[in-house]
Amino acid sequence: MARKSGSSGEKTAIAVREAAIRLIAQHGFAAVSMRQIAREVGVQAGALYLYTPDKQSLLFDILKSHMEDLLSSWQDEAPGSDMAPEARLERFVRFHIRYHISRQDRVFISYMELRNLSPDNFVEIERLRRLYEDVLGEILSDGAAKGVFVMEDIRVTTMAMIAMLTGVSTWFREGGRLGPDDIAAHYISMSLRLAGAHVPMLAVAE
Amino acid sequence: MARKSGSSGEKTAIAVREAAIRLIAQHGFAAVSMRQIAREVGVQAGALYLYTPDKQSLLFDILKSHMEDLLSSWQDEAPGSDMAPEARLERFVRFHIRYHISRQDRVFISYMELRNLSPDNFVEIERLRRLYEDVLGEILSDGAAKGVFVMEDIRVTTMAMIAMLTGVSTWFREGGRLGPDDIAAHYISMSLRLAGAHVPMLAVAE
DNA sequence: TTGCTTACTGCACGAGCGTTCAGTTATGCT
DNA sequence: AGCATAACTGAACGCTCGTGCAGTAAGCAA
Question: Theoretical Cys-Cys bridge with B43: which of A36, A55, B47, B87, CB 3.0 to 4.6 Å?
Answer without folding.
Answer: B47
